Amino acid sequence: MHKAHVLTGSEPVPKYLLVPGDPGRVPLIGEGWDDYTDVSFNREFRYARGSVDGVAIGACSTGIGAPSTEIALMDLAAAGGDTFIRVGTCGAVQPEIAIGTVVIQEGAVRLVGSPDAYCEPSYPAIADRDVTLALIEACEQLGIVYTVGLTASVDSFFAGEDNPIPVPLDLPAKVPFAEKMRGYGVATFEMEAAALFVLGRLIKRRCASICAVGSNRVTGERRDVPEAVADVARAATRAVEILAGWDALLAAGERRYLSPSLLLRSRT
After folding, report:
1. Pairing outcome for strands 102-111 and 125-126
2. How many CB atoms lie within 10 A of CB 263?
3. DSSP letter for each residue of 70-97
4. Quick one: DSSP state of residue 187?
5. What is the pLDDT of residues 114-128, one digit of tens each?
6. Is the pTM of this model over 0.70?
7. Cα 81 → chain centroid
8. What DSSP element (H or E) covers 143?
9. CB-based contacts of 255: which residues, under 8 Å, 6+ apart?
10. Best exposed site among 26, 72, 159, 195 by fewest CB in 10 Å?
11. Among 140, 151, 126, CA closest to 211
């Protein structure tokens, strides 16, 4: 029998799940729900459930990095979770992305090791199309300033993201990694999206990511962005409401995939 690290209790795990890294963000996400219940807090995995507009919804922290994200995703998927939205923070790699901007990450450069245990490094890390579209629509409806782009998911917070190293360390000179990623057109750095995208697709679960920018590697600016973090949580919750409606449209029709014509038909 599978021994889970995420303790989900006796109630069914909701289809739609928001997955922040920080356990402290779980109750903050729940502030936007119609009801919220803390279920468990084991290791870095804080799990809660509730509802919004009649739709069951859950939230579970993943901790920092790909290995713990793998555990959270697999535990929740095994318990019935279908749709996962990462709700996090990131560092901008492009100079024009201002602090406080919300970034919807449509794909990731794979610089994390956990997915390599499942498939070759050439396997792409791509967010689910429908969930990404729901996040875009949610930001539009809520008037949230956002952009859409690629992220680079890394296994190292300090050297791997070109963050200042807090202890003396004498390393050979190298080109800052952010410069390389900037040249590739990558928008952000973070540590979880690639694992979520790759593993979610392999196990046939829908995964997407939305993050608030708290630093910019080009300008050197860095600050807390509680308003942007709140916007990310609001957008993810609204995206679940939107997705629930779209999923109902697909279930009622003969189509397997969402399309603009299907959405336009639903408004007539």
Report:
1. antiparallel
2. 14
3. HHHHHHHHHTT--EEEEEEEEEE-STTS
4. -
5. 999 999 999 999 999
6. yes
7. 15
8. none
9. 262
10. 159
11. 151
